[in-house]
Amino acid sequence: MLDKLSDSLKEAVRKIAMANKIDKHTVDEIVRDIQRALIQADVKISLVKVLSERIRERSLKEKMVLNPREHVIKVVYEELMNILGKAIDVPLTAQKIMMVGLHGTGKTSTCAKLARYFQKKGLKPAVICADVYRPAASDQLRQLCDKMGVPFYDGAELPEGKSVVGIVEAGVKEFDKHDVKIIDTAGRHALEEEMIEEIRAIRKEVAPEQRILVLDASIGQQASVQARAFDDAIGITGIIITKMDGTAKGGGALSAVSETNSGIAFVGTGETVNDLEKFESDRFVSRLLGMGDIKSLIEMAEESLTEEDIDADILKGKFTLNDLYNQLEALKKMGPFKKLMEMLPLGGLGVNIDDSMYQVTEDKLKAFKVIMDSMTKDERNEPKIIDGSRVKRIARGSGTTTAEVSELIKYHKMMQKMMKSMSSGRGKMPMMKGMPLAKMMKGLK
Ligand code: GDP
Ligand code: MG
Fold this sequence. Notes:
Layout lengths: L2 H16 L5 H17 L4 H17 L6 H16 L11 E6 L6 H14 L4 E6 L4 H14 L3 E2 L10 H11 L5 E6 L7 H14 L3 E7 L6 H12 L3 E5 L7 H9 L5 E5 L7 E3 L2 H8 L5 H11 L7 H4 L5 H13 L3 H7 L18 H12 L3 H5 L6 H11 L3 H23 L12 H7 L2
Parallel strand pairs: 1-4, 1-5, 2-3, 2-4, 5-6, 6-7
Antiparallel strand pairs: 7-8
Helix pairs in contact: 1-2, 2-3, 3-4, 4-11, 5-6, 7-8, 14-16, 16-18, 18-19
The protein binds guanosine-5'-diphosphate and magnesium ion.
Magnesium ion binds next to α5.
């Protein structure tokens, strides 16, 4: 989804991370790259201009709490979030959802996808088809519903000449015991008065809590025109942008919606009933920038880390065995280490970490503590002075084996290598210069 835009934005982030210095020249170059990427994705020029100005302004003038590279990345992240549309939450409660939109945008397929979504969340959905103009539409939806075991109603048994509103009312009654009633409506090729009258009538008689507009991503920035027109007609509560998988213009559609009163609830990413994603702007932008799931990462770090977990010595570039111990303890608090590493920006730190590193257990930490207690202060501060005879002495003194002592030293070496690559590594993560893991994650707000 939006691969081209994402590739260009990732490249911009890489440039920031690799920059020797963040100055006007660098920021200008990055802004130009981002502009080009957004315009290719059909984002409106005026929006791109505002975003560019804000990135320039904030990157160079705003007071920094992070190092300059992190600061710029954070600014880009926040500004993209600003233009890429607000997210709307469709609650997981009993409700009626009416789907509207022009012909061919994906209303019928999305009805089935939504039913699947609620079904997966443990609710009982049912689908009502109010498209009396195309019998094929009704068959298409019935088949999809049958496959999922979702009940379906299209008023087939009602007398000839049934009205659309009549069908919807009968359907709502039929599915009295179902939580979520999803109503498919007929579209037209253009915004015609006839269609508007029809959806207005359904709205008036059935009072659906949600009125969702389905838009095809390939219309790009034109999305705002349709969003406004449908909002004027029936009051849109949320938007679903479909076919994000098949067009480069999705960025334009998303940003156009951000200029209207409406917000985006879901995006459609393919033709099967499972190809529907809840839209969350922060997660969406993290992914576009190739920065893992930054929000989850920050949440995890904030929940489990306190200021004391961050050791000032590491900030000065020193990394002793005591630091290792504190870092491992802090990381253990945050839960599965492996998962955490995978969520880090740009797919981890670019350092290959031994699988054993991921298993920092309580017992292991205790053993490390005992071993460290048998070391001299010099050894703890400068572990590289620990040679074979020292290893033997420490093992004897702590009642452990030389293998266990060596393991601790191996851990330290790996962690130190990781810290080094963070502070100097080319093509790794230079933006984390001198920052321990925990501190870095706190900074990326
Ligand atoms: P409607 O006229 O608004 O009811 O549109 P339909 O639901 O019949 O969809 C029109 C076409 O778009 C169908 O061929 C769907 O399979 C396709 N479609 C809908 N949503 C998506 C999507 O998210 N991705 C892709 N690739 N195709 C989609
Ligand atoms: Mg349809």
